[in-house]
Design a protein that fits this description.
The protein has 449 residues and is an alpha+beta fold. 28% of the residues lie in helices and 27% in strands. It has 11 helices and 23 strands. The strands form 5 sheets. It has a 6-stranded mixed sheet, covered by helices on one side. A 5-stranded mixed sheet has the order 3-2-1-14-15. β11, α3 and β12 (198-201) form a beta-alpha-beta unit. α2 (93-99) runs antiparallel to α4. The relative contact order is 0.12.
Length: 449
């Protein structure tokens, strides 16, 4: 079934709902009072270095200094990019991508390897210095008393590819499983010897033609050239690249062939949306964009208001009468599966298996809707048969594969628990819409209107 995207614009708030088969499948929210810096690139200045915690604090012009792991600082690349002058006689990366013929990979040839990051175990090539200017990107928004998490391994995302200026590597999303398709996509991007960076080929690139991929590569590469120009001209701290707003992200990340329509209820934002679509996708996709003119709220008109309200509920009820309890805490999110009013003549083992099979896809969906991240522990109803455990895990992993955030799932433990992680770089939906209750010393929470 094709998907539909609904965008509701209110005072200081923009909400996006993705509808799949007439069911709420994903949800995003952007509030003016909670500005996100995620994805922004700054020319910053090192304020202090703390070798004891393997980090440095960098002034990026925000209220709080950002934190940069020393093993995330690739100083030689920074200096080279910031200070080298363009060579008029050297053909650009895009010229080589668009004009050179496909170069067949020789037998035994190995792909280019990228630079190691924080998890590589490598050390920084040279120590940072206080006062040094660095080019950094926000990989995690400020949280509590902490400033933004920074990295020097900057990247520019497009619709089909992500450009990585410091990596001589062409990677393909792991969600593209076909070896033939992976090879085809890699060959398109590797039509030349990439000397000015590398690419990650996104999942949505699957089955896309050569022209679309190369046009997107050109687009993100030109964005990077604009970043470099500002970085060379401006004094730190300075914002040299700002990640697009939520409407830009909808077009970039969600407007695919399986999307039938996008409905938006603001005339002003509708004009902006049309420009974004024409820039990123092309005029052929403009027919999918519709302005909602009715007096009824766009979410009410499409009958998803109740589903949106349920995002904030602790209990999620399933069709069979079973339910799932979701309890986010500061350190871990706990998900508990309960049989509730579920009744069957089957054995306890089969009953547990049936409830878990129904709960697994709903859990994956709720994690997306609520944007829950970090460590997540799922307490499925106990099952004895290994075959049943494997099938439940397969369903859970299959549904999590739809998630744009990276997830890792461990096997079901002897206690019937599944430990998993989900990447989240921004604020949780709950932290945006709820505040500590002023009447019970923070033991409860109240919703923010």
């Amino acid at each position: 079934m094709p998907k539909d995207i609904l965008i509701h614009i209110a005072d200081g708030e923009r909400r996006v709902a993705v509808i799949d088969n007439k069911k709420l499948d994903d949800f995003y929210i952007e509030l003016d009072r909670y500005e996100s810096f995620l994805g922004n690139i700054y020319k910053g200045k090192v304020e202090s270095i703390l070798p004891s915690i393997n980090g440095a604090f960098v002034n990026v012009g925000q209220e709080k200094n950002g934190f940069l792991y020393l093993t995330d600082a690739d100083h030689s690349s920074l200096e080279n990019f910031l200070h080298k002058k363009p060579d008029a006689h050297q053909p650009s990366l895009i010229d080589r991508l668009l004009n050179r013929k496909v170069k067949k990979e020789e037998p035994g040839e190995k792909p280019h390897s990228g630079r190691g990051g924080r998890g590589s175990g490598g050390k920084a090539e040279s120590p940072l210095k206080v006062g040094q200017e660095v080019l950094v990107q926000v990989e995690k928004d400020p949280f509590g008393t902490k400033g933004p998490r920074l990295t020097t391994h900057v990247s520019i995302p497009g619709r089909f590819v992500v450009y990585m200026p410091y990596d001589n590597h062409v990677g393909v999303s792991q969600k593209i499983e076909s070896p033939e398709e992976r090879h085809r996509l890699r060959e398109i991007i590797k039509e030349c010897d990439i000397k000015e960076g590398g690419f990650i080929i996104r999942t949505v690139s699957m089955n896309q033609d050569k022209a679309e991929l190369l046009n997107d590569a050109k687009f993100v590469y030109e964005k990077w050239q604009q970043v470099l120009k500002l970085a060379r001209e401006k004094k730190s701290p300075f914002l040299v690249y700002k990640e697009g707003d939520i409407i830009w992200k909808v077009v970039r990340d969600h407007l695919r062939e399986d999307v039938a329509s996008i409905h938006i209820d603001s005339k002003e934002e509708h004009e902006k949306l049309l420009k974004y679509v024409e820039t990123l996708v092309g005029q052929k996709a403009l027919k999918k964009i519709h302005l909602h003119r009715g007096e009824t709220n766009i979410f009410e008109a499409h009958k998803i208001t109740k589903a949106l309200e349920e995002i904030y509920d602790t209990k999620v009820y399933l069709k069979t009468g079973a339910y799932v309890v979701i309890e986010p805490t500061e350190g871990v999110t706990v998900v508990d599966v309960n049989s509730g009013r579920y009744k069957t003549q089957a054995s306890p083992e089969e009953a547990a298996f049936n409830v878990n099979m129904e709960a697994a896809p709903e859990i994956a969906r709720q994690l997306r809707l609520r944007d829950l991240g970090g460590i997540i522990v799922i307490d499925f109803i106990d099952m004895m048969r290994e075959e049943h455990k494997r099938k439940v895990l397969d369903v859970l992993r299959g549904e999590l594969a739809k998630d744009m955030s990276k997830t890792e799932v461990n096997k079901i433990s002897s206690l019937g628990l599944v430990e998993m992680t989900r990447e989240r770089a921004g604020k949780t939906l709950e932290s945006i819409k709820f505040a500590p209750c002023p009447y019970c010393q923070g033991r409860g929470k109240v919703k923010i209107d």
